[in-house]
Specification:
Chains A, B: Keywords: Heme, Iron, Metal-binding, Oxidoreductase, Periplasm, Peroxidase, Signal. Two copies of one chain form a homodimer. Chain A is mainly α and about 325 residues long. Chain A has twelve helices and two strands; from the N terminus they run H-H-H-H-H-H-H-H-H-E-H-E-H-H. Chains A and B meet through loops of A and loops of B.
Chain lengths: ~325, ~325
């Protein structure tokens, strides 16, 4: 913790010159603006959008990626833990899909290397979409319009699961949220955030929050222990990264979540136990940096965090192609 | 049945002149093109769109109108019967919301007079969204952006359920699907449908299907007994319009469903028991008009029915405003 605080104090000194005047070009802030996506295969992403909204990727025919990563709601379901097949309760809070391409790995414990690998997981998870890759591929191969669209893109006979997850990942790459007020400020518009928000940012840096929440996604680029200064109390059984590495020191170590659009992605933490930003900031201060913020300090940081809400993706509701007589039918109530 | 057949024969004679040449201006077809919506309060409809996609109208915070009337899927969930709160199985097939404004009444048994009255039902139904109007109004009144938006439209202090259902209904009025190939043909483009499809339409008229499935929605404008020529066999317990009128003759009488977009709104019938149009046409012929179509006849009618798929509404995915600290939280797993 001492090292982290020292780093932050240095960062604070470096950036304090910008107070009230917007950042100077010569001062490198520890948070970077989100860059617009440039290298996207539009045709593939458009197919991926359909698949993202496609309930036939689930056994029930009812749950799609968008059910738990709702693009109307900051890419989350705003539930503590998600509702899966047969109304099963998920084990962990669904992280936002917005800006997920900026994460160093996917899932809270980083068990998937990238978006493509992630996309295959919930489809087969019996507590989530409860399908199988075999079933999903059978379903898609029975739908003429999908067959045609995949063929056009991949020039390959028959749809394969690798193509499905690749398309979903390509769509997800487009789900970035640039142009938040904070990014406008970073880019030189000193009026984009107000004095309280700016002071919140300074405090966010000075107090050490920035040591984990930095970079373009304001997080997402490291794994950290939840409960550094004091243990984090939860009834949630997730053990974090130890499940991936097997190392004892990775117990309760999770991927640091992005703070982009944090105003929209409540409830907070891997257990989804906290409903408001005020509470979340209070708890993080205690358990991560061993500090009690005053009410005014808390309000400043919350005000700053709300400047991180970016432009939400503008998407047309996809029209999904109809099943054919050969399509395996959904099994919502089968045991 | 005799009366119906006679009517149809007359209709057929009247319209047979159009065979292969598109309808003449002097021949009035029993199906009318869908007209574009003209009188819509756009601001109200836009608010209604948000509410249509709003999972906070349900107890769980997971189910929205769009869950069962999915606008990516012909305004249906493509399930035999829907999945409701706590994964409860619904009692009846969810009818499409597309062109629902053209129905003479709402729900299969017509128990709601209009879209506004309908919209209030599923919110409070313990097997569907399982909320209450009081809860929903509390939730919406706790969300600053909704309060502002309702205030702007209704100029009234505090959101009321009547405003919520009015907004949803206004949005639903926009969900019409004009410009199907069949409508293009009706409007004079003789190349819009092919010979098989045209023959299917002629057979549809000659055989009596048109006696119930007519007008702009190709249905939706009368209540009819399911099982006229012979009883319709089903394990579904819905008794139909008798539940509304109490009259014995209304047993197994249902609102005739629209055939617009029927290619997209499988499975078919009030019990959702039939997956394909081929089967549906076969069964309807047997139980309603006491006829067995040949395979070729069946194929013609199915081909005609597929010309009724109209332009699906082009909608931008709405961005829903975040809850506040005062918002009652969803209760997905509460008993």
């Amino acid at each position: 913790m001492k090292t982290i605080r020292l780093q932050l104090t240095l960062m604070s000194i470096l950036s304090v010159g910008s107070l009230g005047f917007g950042p100077k070009a010569s001062v490198k802030e520890p948070i970077e603006p989100i860059k617009p996506v440039t290298s996207v295969n539009k045709q593939l992403a458009e197919l991926g959008k359909k698949l993202f909204f496609e309930p036939r990727l689930s056994k029930s025919g009812f749950i799609s990626c968008n059910s738990c990563h709702n693009l109307s709601r900051g890419g989350t379901d705003n539930l503590a833990t998600s509702i899966g097949h047969n109304w099963q309760q998920g084990p962990i809070n669904s992280p936002t899909v917005l800006n997920a391409s900026l994460n160093l790995a996917q899932f809270w414990d980083g068990r998937a290397a990238d978006l493509k690998e992630q996309a295959g997981g919930p489809i087969e998870n019996p507590k989530e979409m409860a399908a199988s890759h075999v079933l999903v591929v059978d379903v898609l191969n029975s739908i003429p319009q999908y067959v045609k669209e995949f063929k056009k893109i991949f020039n390959h006979k028959g749809i394969e699961i690798e193509q499905v997850t690749q398309a979903i990942a390509e769509f997800e790459k487009t789900l970035i949220t640039p142009n938040s007020r904070f990014d406008q400020w970073l880019l030189g518009n000193k009026d984009a955030i107000n004095q309280q928000e700016l002071e919140g940012y300074q405090l966010f840096k000075q107090s050490g929050c920035i040591s984990c929440h930095n970079g373009a996604a304001v997080g997402g680029n490291s794994f950290q222990k939840m409960g550094i200064a004091q243990p984090y109390k939860t009834t949630n059984e997730a053990k974090g990264r130890i499940a991936v590495t097997g190392k004892e020191e990775d117990k309760h170590v999770f991927k640091v979540p992005t703070l982009r659009n944090i105003e929209l992605t409540y409830p907070y933490f891997h257990d989804g136990s906290v409903d408001t930003l005020e509470q979340a900031v209070d708890i993080m201060a205690k358990v991560q940096i061993g500090r009690d913020f005053t009410k005014a300090e808390n309000a400043k940081i919350v005000a700053f965090l709300k400047t991180l809400t970016g432009e939400q993706p503008t998407l047309t509701v996809p029209i999904l192609p109809p099943s054919s007589s050969a399509t395996p039918r959904p099994q919502p109530f089968a045991q």
